[in-house]
Amino acid sequence: LKTEKIIASDPFPASLKNLEAFGAQTTRSNEDIVKEADVVFLAVKPTVLQGVLSTIKSHVSTRHLILSTAMGISIRNIEQALPAASKVIRVMPNTPVFVRNGACVYVCGSAVEKEDEAIVRKLLDAVGTCDRIPESMIDAVTALSGSGPAYVYVMIEALADGAVRMGLPRDLAYRLTAQTVLGAAHMVQNTNLHPGQTKG
């Protein structure tokens, strides 16, 4: 997907400038987004989602694929706020998508078809891994892979701090710690062994 084909809106001018630097088109109007795009990401806080949905509702049709990353807002609630037969998918990414190593899941709404799901998989596969799950699992996934990176960062910080206390330069401590975590993750992914078996 070429960046010039992306159009994004944001209420904050500084955020729009960052998006423009990335190569995307920008606007202050959510309605303009829906008029221009077929695939619409609603990457907003849960507290403002209903307001966004009410703004775009009259412009949404069956040509649109609506993706929401808002935590705690069910597909049913989103579908009820949009015209009948709207195609809605909930997506839960995590922060490592910024370096194309995210762990993403998605949940399909009742009107989503196979070709719609294929589009979502292609988008999410480009920034890491993706799995389809039932909506009943999404809260658990949010706790695991959504919040999980923060715990790993704390662990990296603690291990590196310990190494610095033992005399290592901080940049080397961070580099070794990050590679250790990365290598351990690859061991789990590539050996098909239970993590307990890899402890040696």
UniProtKB/TrEMBL annotation:
UniProt-listed Enzyme Commission number(s): 1.5.1.2
Domain Pyrroline-5-carboxylate reductase catalytic N-terminal: 5-71
Recorded superkingdom: Eukaryota
Every Pyrroline-5-carboxylate reductase dimerisation domain range: 135-198
Main location, first listed in the record: cytoplasm
Entry-linked InterPro entries: 6-PGluconate_DH-like_C_sf, NAD(P)-bd_dom_sf, P5C_Rdtase_cat_N, P5CR_dimer, Pyrroline-COOH_reductase
Example of a GO MF term: pyrroline-5-carboxylate reductase activity
Localization, UniProt: Cytoplasm
One GO term describing the cellular component: cytoplasm
UniProt keyword terms in alphabetical order: Amino-acid biosynthesis, Cytoplasm, NADP, Oxidoreductase, Proline biosynthesis
One BP annotation, GO: L-proline biosynthetic process
Enzyme class name: oxidoreductase
Classification via SUPFAM superfamilies: 6-phosphogluconate dehydrogenase C-terminal domain-like, NAD(P)-binding Rossmann-fold domains
Pfam families: F420_oxidored (PF03807), P5CR_dimer (PF14748)
UniProt pathway annotation: Amino-acid biosynthesis; L-proline biosynthesis; L-proline from L-glutamate 5-semialdehyde: step 1/1
Catalysis: reaction(s): L-proline + NADP(+) = (S)-1-pyrroline-5-carboxylate + NADPH + 2 H(+); L-proline + NAD(+) = (S)-1-pyrroline-5-carboxylate + NADH + 2 H(+)
Annotated family: Belongs to the pyrroline-5-carboxylate reductase family.
PANTHER family in the cross-refs: PYRROLINE-5-CARBOXYLATE REDUCTASE (PTHR11645)
Protein name in UniProt: Pyrroline-5-carboxylate reductase
Organism: Blattella germanica
